[in-house]
Amino acid sequence: MNAIPLSRRAFIAHTAALTGSAVLSPLGLRSAPAAKRTAVDQVPLGKTGLKLSRLGIGTGSNSGQVQHALGKEGFVRLVRHAYDRGITYIDAAQSYRTFEWIKDAIRGLPREKLFLQSKIGGQPEKVAEVIDRHRKVFDTDYLDSLLIHCMVREHWTDAFKRVMDAFDAAREKKLIRAKGVSCHSIPALRAATASDWTEVHLVRVNPQGHYIDSLQEHWDRPGRDLEPVMHEVRTMHAKGRGVIGMKIIGNGDFTRAEDREKSIRWAMSRPELSAVVIGFKSAAEIDEAIERMNRALAEA
Q1: Cα(190)–Cα(112) distance, rounded to whole angstroms?
Q2: How far apart are CA 87 and CA 294, in angstroms?
């Protein structure tokens, strides 16, 4: 059968189409390599619409006593070093000894680039006033994320309904951008997962199962079995929640480099974790964590 002759215009169009197909084809030009992931990437926090650095700096090791021991100037230098390395997520709490120092630590930094997360413990009579105090102490118009702190009871969502409603009201006024909870027992963790109120979870995790949640409803009676915790984490992730891992360095007990390496590699392999937070006490610890995370992400 004879071929149908092509006009010059048709020939050019036909050639261009073939060229485009070659570019898109697996046999054509190579596709662009996947973007390199790092510890300080800005990553999405579940479906909250917010982003934070994959690694955060915690300011409350041993209720903040570890960071407080640095003195105010030392603490400010530590936070500034973290920011200079690309860490924009700062994790605080009303009960931490460093709470009053956050304003000085972030003074002059571009607020829109920071992710400030704090926590309120107990059931204050006037929750709105406590939220306003956070904003005053931090010298900011809003908090990126505010958590109910250290829940251990199975039915905490019933007991803290008034506090949860106050968080909702603050969110409506754009005083906080996201709301959630930190838990310190598996019963509390299960309640947080089941509740549609929760947007952000702060969860104790590490592959060694050290200082993680247990079935006992008490904050300082940790467990060793990671699977019940990870079952909840997987469910949180499936629901589109923002999940942040804490106790990655085993409450500071991972003094051996191999334990820190193992835990960080594990955390970087978990797609359920939006980010992780580590309580640092020196610039060297920050640099080490970034290096280990970068290497783990590059080799994943």
Answers
A1: 33
A2: 13
Cβ(274)–Cβ(43) under 8 Å? yes
Instruction: Give per-residue pLDDT as tens, 123-137.
Output: 999 999 999 999 999
* CATH level 2 (architecture), domain 42-299: Alpha-Beta Barrel (3.20)
Contact call for residues 236 and 193 (beta carbons, < 8 A): yes
List pLDDT tens digits, range 198-222: 999 999 999 999 999 999 988 788 8
Pair 208, 250: CB distance under 8 Å = yes
What does 221-239 look like in DSSP terms, one character per residue? --B--HHHHHHHHHHHHHT
Cα angle for residues 67, 70, 74 (degrees, 5° grid): 105
Distance CA 191, CA 203 (A): 13
Q: How many CB atoms lie within 10 A of CB 226?
A: 19
Write the DSSP string, 241-281: -EEEEE-TTGGGT--SHHHHHHHHHHHHT-TT-SEEEEE-S
Please tell me the pTM assigned to this model. Answer: 0.89
Q: Report the SS3 class of residue 287.
A: helix
